[in-house]
Amino acid sequence: MTNTSNNLSEHQAIKQTVQFYIDSAIAGKSEIMSRAFSKDATIYGFVYPDLTKPEKSTLLSGSIQALFDFVDSTEPVQNLKVEFVRIDIVGTSANVKLELYDWLGMRFTDSLNLLKTVEGWKIVSKVFHQST
To answer: How many domains is the chain built from?
Structure first.
């Protein structure tokens, strides 16, 4: 019984961390998002300026600062819809799969890897797929 309640509280703590990421996307302010990420977090995924021409994609890779810069360059998002598809927890590590609909007219599938640190759960990497 304790294990189940422990998992529920960890599940809630992870969702709270990820909520900083979501709230930041809506507000267009990376200082909110930075609370969710480890200072050494990374990001990887292809950005498609035109989804009909995947050959013109650009690999976004490296420091999470690239995501922070993108968020700061955007206006607040009014219609963002987010679905928590899955949260898997194994000890001090977790993986969250998110679907984000209508983030500036785009859809993203995110895989967020988290570690439980002395500061709580922190996102250490974000891998994403952009689609229509």
So the answer is: 1
